């Protein structure tokens, strides 16, 4: 009741008569301040993400979404490689940060989720709820804390659908923000929706430009990335590219002369477990 009263006292008198465009422009800072004060006064958000369930009725969620963002784009990669990119979030995060792209995401794997930290003020978990070879849907449960006076927790559905077209993939990305049971919170999101959608669009378009650079280098100059990866991620990178994990060059000690039988024996040994030794003494020359 106090919130309703505060809202009425602060906002209603402003619109007793229709303001001119100039008056509205002058009032916008005050309206924003009042709205933020109402938000701060009203909301008492939970501190833990565990209050949100991973169970979701997708049709209802998308139909009742308080906020929807949709964009289409084309990526210069094959369908198989794109699916392997989506299957390799930790590797892709490492490559992203090798390029010093912004923001400097931090990604780790949990039992059933991908944990994402965006240093600009977003942190949460991504759950793959609809896997597919040409579509995926993720449920995001996270918190937002940047320029707002409070920390907001919530759920977002991320839908990816893609159609292969030769060596390209045509992509549709849609994000749905869940409608809250808190009416003032919904009013706040609606009021700020143009700003929020603009911020989301800027972030998505910026990330896409950087992602296209990485995909281009994977296709045209894979060694540029491979040479900077540590040994632990080399196998993952080769698999992402669709290449077999190759053993490093073997440095032989002794006479380089091998009979064909000995060479096959050595190759079998290397193929079975090349990690056992990189230095293999040669048998005496026949």
Series of secondary-structure elements, N-terminal to C-terminal:
HHHEHHEEEEEEHHHEHE
Helix content: 40-55%
The percentage of residues in β strands lies in: 15-25%
**Terminal Cα span:** 97 Å
Topology:
Elements lengths: L1 H10 L9 H22 L15 H6 L3 E9 L3 H8 L2 H10 L7 E4 L4 E5 L3 E9 L4 E10 L7 E14 L2 E10 L5 H38 L1 H5 L4 H11 L9 E3 L6 H14 L5 E3 L5
Parallel strand pairs: 8-9
Antiparallel strand pairs: 1-7, 2-3, 3-4, 4-5, 5-6, 6-7
Helix pairs in contact: 1-2
Description:
The chain has 286 residues and is α+β, with helices and mostly antiparallel strands. 43% of the residues lie in helices and 23% in strands. The protein contains nine helices and nine strands. The strands form two sheets. The protein has a seven-stranded antiparallel β-sheet with strand order 1-7-6-5-4-3-2. Strands 8-9 form a two-stranded parallel ribbon. The chain is globular and about 55 Å long.
List keywords for this structure.
single chain; 286 residues; alpha+beta; 7-stranded antiparallel beta sheet; 43% helix; 23% strand; globular; disordered N terminus; disordered C terminus
Concise account of the structure shown:
With 286 residues, the protein is α+β, with helices and mostly antiparallel strands. The protein is built from nine helices and nine strands.
């Amino acid at each position: 009741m106090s919130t309703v009263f505060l809202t009425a006292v602060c906002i209603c008198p402003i619109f007793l008569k229709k303001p001119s465009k100039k008056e509205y422009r002058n009032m916008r800072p005050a309206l924003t301040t009042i709205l933020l004060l109402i938000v701060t006064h009203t909301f008492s958000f939970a501190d833990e993400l565990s209050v949100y369930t991973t169970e979701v009725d997708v049709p209802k969620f998308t139909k009742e979404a308080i906020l929807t963002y949709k964009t289409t784009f084309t990526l210069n990669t094959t369908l198989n490689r794109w699916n392997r990119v989506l299957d390799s979030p930790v590797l892709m995060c490492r490559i992203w940060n090798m390029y010093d792209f912004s923001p400097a995401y931090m990604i780790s794997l949990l039992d059933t989720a991908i944990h994402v930290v965006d240093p600009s003020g977003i942190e949460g978990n991504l759950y793959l709820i609809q896997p597919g070879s040409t579509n995926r849907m993720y449920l995001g449960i996270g918190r937002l804390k940047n320029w707002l006076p409070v920390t907001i927790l919530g759920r977002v559905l991320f839908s990816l659908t893609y159609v292969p077209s030769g060596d390209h993939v045509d992509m549709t990305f849609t994000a749905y923000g869940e409608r809250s049971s808190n009416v003032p919170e919904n009013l706040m999101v609606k009021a700020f929706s143009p700003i929020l959608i603009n911020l989301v669009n800027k972030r998505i378009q910026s990330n896409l430009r950087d992602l296209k650079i990485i995909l281009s280098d994977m296709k045209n100059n894979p060694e540029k990335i491979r040479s900077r990866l540590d040994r632990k991620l080399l196998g993952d990178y080769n698999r992402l590219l669709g290449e077999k994990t190759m053993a490093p060059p073997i440095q032989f000690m002794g006479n380089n002369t091998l009979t064909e039988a000995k060479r096959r024996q050595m190759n079998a040994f290397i193929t079975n477990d090349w990690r056992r030794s990189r230095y293999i003494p040669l048998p005496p020359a026949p």
